[in-house]
Amino acid sequence: MLAAAIFGFAFGFIGSVPIAGPISALVFRSGITGRYGRGRAIAIGGAIGEGMYAFFAFWGVGAFLTSYPWVLPISKVIAGALLVALGAMFIRRPSSSTKSDRADEADDPNSPQRGLKRSLLLGFGITALNPTLIATWTTVVATTLSSGLASYSVGAAGAFALSAAAGIALWFLVFLELLSRFRDRIHRGTLDRLVQLIGVVLVGLGVWFWISVGLAMRT
């Protein structure tokens, strides 16, 4: 169990470093606008969702993809739509909050707490709606088990998943702390352009998911 936990934490932490997925992009956008509480909530929600996929992968759900090969293409279509929608939002509104958000904060003293709950659910929901993660974590689990240092058991699956979620959450908390320290040193226009660039990357990834499904169907 200890080895499974170490592998899970390491893969969770290191695998979250690139700003190339929807959760990392949302956390980054929250951080550069100074909404650190929202960023933390999104990160924790996403970590819980990804830990769930890590548990299922360790538990053997990867074999499900082998038995039902049509699941992966459908999941790629869903993930592609999600990435394109988020990318388009980043391109159109790189760092501005909506008027309705500001009005809610002014009118309702309980809105910050409610907003954090919504952000937590947003992070979890986006991750839960990205079933391609089961394929990613299946590969990670195969690497972990092939090392010979970890073996399959329900306890090991739980330790692996919890540690993976902890590693993911820790990276984002460190990332937000770094943003809070250095955000003011970067011009706002530069930050907006960076967010828009991330949006372009997200759209590109989403389109590539669709293209890969089309190419797979032709073969």
Topology:
Layout: H1 2-15, H2 22-32, H3 36-67, H4 71-92, H5 99-107, H6 111-128, H7 132-146, H8 154-182, H9 188-218
Helix pairs in contact: 1-8, 2-3, 2-8, 2-9, 3-6, 3-7, 3-8, 4-9
Strand content: under 5%
Structural class: mainly alpha
Query: How many distinct beta strands?
Result: 0
Helicity range of the residues? Answer: over 70%
Distance between the termini: 41 Å
Counted up, domains total: 1
Task: Look at the structure and give the mean pLDDT.
Answer: 80
Radius of gyration: 18 Å
User: Which stretches are low in confidence, meaning pLDDT under 50 for 5 or more residues running?
Assistant: 97-109
Helical segment tally? 9
- SSE sequence, one letter per element: HHHHHHHHH
Overall, the morphology is globular
For the sheet with most strands, the description reads: none
Describe the structure.
This protein is mostly helical. The chain has one domain (2-218). The chain has nine helices and no strands. The chain is globular and about 50 Å long.
Summarize this structure briefly.
The protein has 219 residues and is mostly helical. It is 83% helix and 0% strand. Helix 2 (22-32) runs parallel beside helix 8 (154-182).
Search tags:
219 residues; mainly alpha; 0% strand
